[in-house]
Amino acid sequence: MTVTTGPLHDLLRPAHDHDNLDAWRWSVRRQLVPVRDGLVRETPRRHEAWLSARAARALRERDTLLARLNRLATQVLSAPDVEPVRSELRRLLADIDRHAQRMSDLAYDDVELEIGGSE
């Protein structure tokens, strides 16, 4: 998964200038699109039996992340106070980073199995 979250991290910094709150809201909303697209593009691979449970868990986790992202994409435009939304978005990005690491670990374990492991 190649999700680019750097620009969104920059927008969510506490010190970010909020002189034009509407422009900030739309900028955040625009930066959520590539994050969402990266999650949607994840395609499940066929895994060995011992990896299939982890792969299924990763897909369920991805679906949960997408649901949270969609909910927050609406809230960023409509919430009267953006600080709770900003905090939730930061948590979401941390969870997406952990999910990306799990997907990477799953792919590594799959490749390790194909080439014979450590023995």
Can you put this structure into words, describing what you see?
The protein has 119 residues and is an all-alpha fold. It has one domain (6-115). 76% of the residues lie in helices and 0% in strands. The protein contains four helices and no strands.
Topology:
Blueprint: H1 6-11, H2 21-40, H3 49-78, H4 82-115
Summarize the structure.
This protein is mainly alpha-helical. It has helices at residues 6-11, 21-40, 49-78, 82-115.
**Portion of residues in helices?**
over 70%
Helical run tally? 4
Runs in which pLDDT lies below 50 for 5 or more consecutive residues are: none
> What is the terminal-to-terminal distance?
29 Å
Beta-strand segment tally = 0
Described by strand count, sense and barrel closure, the largest sheet is: none
Following the backbone from N to C, one meets helices and strands in this order, namely HHHH
Proportion of strand residues: under 5%
Look at the helices and sheets and give the structural class.
mainly alpha
The residue-averaged pLDDT reads 82
How many domains make up the 3D coordinates?
A: 1
Q: Tell me, what's the shape? A: elongated
- What integer value in Å does the Rg equal? 17 Å
